[in-house]
Predict the 3D structure of the following.
Amino acid sequence: MSSVLSILVIVWVIYMIVKKHYPQAVLLFAGVILLAWAVFVNGTMVLSAKASSGSNVLDIFETIQVLMSERIAGLGLMIMSIAGFAKYMDYVGAGKALFAVVATPIKKIRSPYILLVVGFFISQFLVIFIPSHAGLGLLLMVTMYPIFIRAGVSKLSALGVIGCAQYMDVGPGSGNAILAATITGMNPAVYFVKWQFPIFITTTLVLGIVHFFVQRWWDKKEGYIPNMEAIDVKEDTKRPPIIYAVLPIIPMIFILGFSPLFKSPIKINVVTAMFLSTFIAMAFELFRTRSFQSTLCGLKHMFDGMGRSFTVVISLIVSGEVFANGLVKIGAVDALTGSLQHLGLNSYILIIFFCIAITICAFLMGSGNAAFFSFAALAPKIAESIGISSLNLILPMQIMTSFGRVCSPITAAIVAISGVADVNPIQVVKRTCIPMAAAAVINIIFLFINF
């Protein structure tokens, strides 16, 4: 009976999120229902004796407090500080300055499809420092998109490349990557450099070639002739001094430079790196504006970003973990893994199965965060039950989640860039699906290489 309830609740959760109901509330409500069933029907203790309030009934809600306390103090503060720094960088215009530095050579490229490939590579460099699919996509729409169009690139080819701007949540600035590193008990810098980076570089190089042929094939199929329909689009030239290009890079220098990778005796965690980098950026602002009051007031943008991150991201992580905890306590995870083991499938097939499942969820939800945060907490228990390490499962799942998001026409970034260019989002994801299919194949190949 518990298994039937679990299936019904999971289906209901996916349905409600696809229908655009508030995901935090949906996940939290579903988690409470499952925990209540575990307590009242199965007679299960949902918290350890040490963490328990003394009442099994109250422990249903005490679980929320325990998970929130754990996440806000560690992972939550990391993600909020990153979001706050990103918001401050957006406020001072540092992203535009960084783009101005890396994009100067592409203005001299005359071949539309070569330009698309180089533009894609530039977007993948930027994503390490601007870890927001929608944010980076909109930045590229006011900076790179006009360059594409003036060179004769079709609207949809340009959007196909820009839509893939964050095809992988990568780097110690990504919320998904930090959660994955936390679950595996790994330093975010080590997770990025040792495990994500080889996959990211290989996939990016291959996707550059894939975009060249896919976008050209779609243009021919739809009757577009390069340079024949070039449109005059104004480029946003407002930006701060070019020296501001170093500001988004500073946290990465601190995080990687003082990480175990370089055996540094000095340790700087993500939160410290973000606040230190923000104060350095404030010094730049003070020098530029010559206004102490204006510089101090600008800091509110960082705290606004942190607050929004709590509302959007941290609350989603905690709600997802309450939901996952309910599935564990009700016995759904044990039943699932037991059934899969009974089928006699090897660990590689099981990992691919879970990767495909979470990719489909991300596609339906239009959000990599909603899908990954909802089910990531289950990974350690599932991995243990099928005899593999958490990393073996969480790494390919975390990467595949992004692919599903990029292929979804309801993803915020896809909807936003489609709106700017005045095209249908369906037309855009037609241009992103084939590259993401190629990326999925590469991810599976790395699964066999790494594990």
Q: What stands out?
A: The radius of gyration is 23 Å. The mean pLDDT is 85. Residues 56-92 form the longest helix (37 residues).
